[in-house]
Structures are given as C-alpha cells and as structure tokens.
Amino acid sequence: MESSVTSQSALAMLSWQIELGATETIGDSPINRYDTPPEKPGKAPCSEPASMPAPAIISAADDPVKEAEKAASSCSDLNALQSSMQSFEHCDLKRGARNLVFSDGNPKAWVMIIGEAPGRDEDRIGKPFVGRAGQLLDKMLAAINLSRERQAPETAAYITNVLPWRPPQNRDPKPEEIAMLLPFVQRHVELIDPQVIVLMGNISCQAGLGRRGITRLRGTWTEAYGKPALPMFHPAYLLRSPHAKREAWADLLDLQARLRAST
Ligand code: URA
Asked: pTM of the entire structure?
C-alpha cells in the first residue's frame, strides 16, 4: 500500500514535536474516539494533518541571542517591543503557542512582576497570570493594596513573564530559550523603568539572577536587570504548598514597606 507520508517526513515531524517538548502522545484536550468517523479502507494510517506547521528552517549562521539583542535594543517603546517579539522567529515555542503573552497592568507601575511563562489559560487569552495562579497573585497583590487595574503608579502593578510563549505541556523552559528571550526582558524592564521588580519563582530567578533555589533566595532583596529585586515563591507553588503562604506574606509586607519608603 502506498503511503502519502514517507518514513523521512514522518521522522522529521516526530523530531520536530520532540524538539517542541512533546513527551507523551496526548493532546491538550481529550478526543472522543467513538465520535470520530472510521477511517476509509485503503487510507494511509498516518496521513499528514492539514494544520501541521512546517518545521522551521533557520540558518545555523544565525545566533538567536545576538538577533534578539539587536531586535530588542532597537525598540523605543512597548508597542515596538511587542511587535518585535511577535516577529521573532528563532524560538520554536512560538510555533506551538496560540498567542504571544506580552504583559498586563499599568506600565507606569512602580512594581514590575516577572513570572515564568504562560500556561494554558494565558496562552488562550493572551494575558499573563489569568488562570488559578493568576487569581491567587491578584489576591496577594490586593492584600498589600496593589492591583494591575490601578491608575496610581504607587498602587499599580505591571506583570510580564520571562517567556512570552507557552512551553508545550508546561515544561520548564530550556536554558537556550531563556537566553534568547532575555534581551527582550531586559529591554522590557528598561522601558517600564520600575522602582522594584518581583521575581516570581525559580525560572524568573534563573533568568534574572542566573541562579535557582527559590527557597533560599526568596525574601532577600537583590538586584536584577539593574533594579532592586525581590525573589518570591510563585503563586502556583503556593497553591500546591499552602504552608509556604506564611513566608509569601512576609515577602509581600517587605515589598509594601519598600514601596512606601519610595514615596
Ligand atoms: N505562571 C506564570 O509564571 N506566568 C503566567 O502568566 C501564568 C502562570
């Protein structure tokens, strides 16, 4: 029987999916196989899905980090930065994501919160921290009278992530992915010019400080992207480990005291 997929193209598709981080042969949403029509006899069992994007062909001569530095440094405002990230073709995560998740909140805010990467809800909606972790983040901010909705810079919050695209199956970003997106984060901080930064979780610390180990890092002010920075437990971790909320509360009070001292 003649197949429309050669073994070479099947292998290429498979390695592309592995490159995107696929570790299991499951999709994001369940498929009811009883509802799918039976395959026609004689049809190749693994015909190519019509929506499968072609594997990216990127010249080995390109250095994605240099490309990102060049692109980011030429952006003079947030709109330019967002468009520049939108047209950055070197990160394969882009091809597996539905939306670029750029930011939310007030760009004039004194505090800039840098999370890790969008999850499924953020990818669908195109805004950071809108799922369960985001709802907890909003409550944490409200507890110290901050909100992403506020106009007044001293009580407002601006929120972004190290990665603007959702990693497949919410896997941890690879070091090379963080490295190629870091110039955009750095430029983002320069354009917002906040008084302080909150590094939410390990990936954010990895990107901003070059170190992980949030249990030790949290609660101690440091410097990231040229700004005072406070590492904190990620709200997703707090959902899994409610006992850590005590430390998170102490860190929130510390953040509030720092912001009050700036007035
Ligand atoms: N976790 C993050 O770090 N960022 C989001 O936007 C959502 C969940």
From this structure: 0.79
